[in-house]
């Protein structure tokens, strides 16, 4: 039975979207945990809580997405693109969060961390980790 479960898990992990969801889930948990910790123990400031949560989740996410999901090499080029995508998504999510300023702070953090993955997967797939086009040779 354990062998069948292992085989099923191995088959699922062959799919990039499954690996993205798993590593994204861990990054999301990191973001939420850090943000909630900040809100509870330091200050009720959603913006700062999300900045700290984003920062720690970003470090984990970059390495996990690069190495495990997109099976790419760690380098400054894709690190910069990854940061631009993640930071842009954070700004958009924070803007959306500000639309719900009267909502509970914890729910606003949840709103932010569920918007980010949808947007970022598409952009990372199409831009951050896309295979560069080989140069065209003139005949």
From TrEMBL:
It comes from the Bacteria. GO terms for cellular component: plasma membrane. It is found in: Membrane. Its main location: membrane. InterPro entries: GtrA_CellWall_Glycosyl, GtrA_DPMS_TM. Keywords: Membrane, Transmembrane, Transmembrane helix. Residues 19-129 form the GtrA/DPMS transmembrane domain. The chain crosses the membrane at residues 20-41, 47-70, 82-100, 106-123. It is a multi-pass membrane protein. GO terms for biological process: polysaccharide biosynthetic process. Belongs to the GtrA family. This is GtrA/DPMS transmembrane domain-containing protein.
């Amino acid at each position: 039975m354990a062998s069948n479960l292992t085989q099923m898990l191995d088959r699922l992990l062959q799919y990039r979207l499954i690996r993205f969801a798993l590593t994204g889930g861990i990054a999301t948990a990191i973001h939420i945990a850090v943000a909630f910790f900040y809100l509870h123990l330091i200050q009720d400031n959603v913006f700062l809580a999300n900045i700290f949560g984003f920062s720690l989740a970003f470090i984990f996410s970059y390495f996990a997405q690069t190495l495990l999901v997109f099976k790419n090499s760690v380098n400054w080029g894709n690190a910069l693109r990854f940061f631009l995508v993640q930071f842009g998504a954070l700004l958009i999510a924070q803007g959306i969060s500000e639309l719900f300023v009267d909502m509970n702070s914890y729910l606003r953090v949840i709103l932010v961390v569920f918007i980010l993955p949808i947007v970022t997967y598409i952009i990372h797939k199409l831009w951050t980790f896309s295979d560069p086009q080989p140069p065209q040779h003139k005949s």
